[in-house]
Automatic annotation (TrEMBL):
Gene that specifies this protein: thiH
Gene Ontology terms: biological process: sulfur compound biosynthetic process; water-soluble vitamin biosynthetic process
Keywords, sorted A to Z: 4Fe-4S, Iron, Iron-sulfur, Metal-binding, S-adenosyl-L-methionine
Cofactor(s) needed: [4Fe-4S] cluster
Name this polypeptide is given: 2-iminoacetate synthase
Amino acid sequence: MRYINEALIWETLEQAEKTTPAEIEKILQKSRKLQRLTLAETAALLTVDEPEILAHIFQAAAWVKNEIYGKRVVLFAPLYISNICQNTCRYCAFKADNKLIERKALTADEIQTQVEFMLQRGHKRILLVAGESQPRFADSLVDYYTSSIEAIYAAQTGAHKIKRVNINCAPLSVADFQKLKKAGIGTFQIFQETYHEETYKYVHVRGPKTDPDKRIAALDDAFAAGIDDVGMGVLYGLFDYRFDTLALLLHIEQLEKTWKVGPHTISVPRIEPAVGAEYSLNIPHKVSDLDFKKIVAVLRLSVPYTGMILSTRETARMRDELIDLGISQISAESSVAPGGYKEKADNPQFTVADHRSLDEIIASLVDKGYIPSFCAACYRMERTGEKFMCLAKPGTIKGKCSMNALITLREYLEDFAPENTKTAGYKFLEQLKAALPHQERQTYENFCLEIAGGARDKYV
């Protein structure tokens, strides 16, 4: 598989087994300087099983996450526009040969209706998700994507509109990626699923996705098209989590070498049961909760600058715990089937474990001292790609992230929150304001006056 040296990964893991506790502590000291870890250093952390040393890893990950991003947690919602797919992937309910689900592709009008409903709930950031097949009413796959993006941005309820659309979609040509960029996407996201070639070919039975090199090349093609914010990840449970984590890091190293930019986000999904996908019920390399926590913490330490995304595949309890260990973005109140927000949808891609409403998640974050954020300022201020990395790597992005999180939380409380959330939220904001330096406090207070006067969508 392109970029992936399997022999090197296995050799690195074998050597990592010999790492001493003193060497682990030295690696953690390096992490606390916000420095990228090497493949060998990351492998050493992944081999740790001793509870006391794991606790040190978890503490270091929490510290690094706070140094880079502060207490803000970005919220978004996936919008599935189609479950029509030409791939047969053993683990996915959308696989082409699954006769147990009804196929559906949303039209532009249906998408706009879904988004208007989401706006009424308080959502502001959307991840567009689609199967790898164009609907009959679309001229091409990329045209379906771009018309869907236009429909999302066109939706409006009162003063509220979607701030930014990110997209998780199939590999495209450079020319088609340029169309996505022109349509106004933020991040292009694609998962390799597994970097172990034999496993990849086994789980991807038919369709364009059977070619692992075409999929891995999609990020290069996106960069070549001028998209400088990308997201990546693997589907944990398909193969040995240590191998796939190190392979992901090899891929990241290649992106950094070629394009001078690493991933804007890394996602960490685990396989969940899916209707009609027997493979998903008998996970070959099931990842325990403790190992999953280790994965999140080690990725945070290895690639400290990146945003880390956790979906509603995980339970509320697990999501709350993983925010402490490095997660900086979470989906909220998710539907993983086309048309599933305004109406009930019976054909999800996988089983959702966290069914809390957006408001319940916001209330929970506030209760735990985290700042829910709907910010999309970096995209609007062209703080993307290398410019974002220059701010994220030393941790200076935190000041902007924290202020924008305060502003967007204030707007949510004003417009959408029930009384109990408002009361707790305003109290929390007053506590945070009191801790701000004088100039930042004045900036925040000025924004509060503008918001009280009806201004919306403010940011720095």
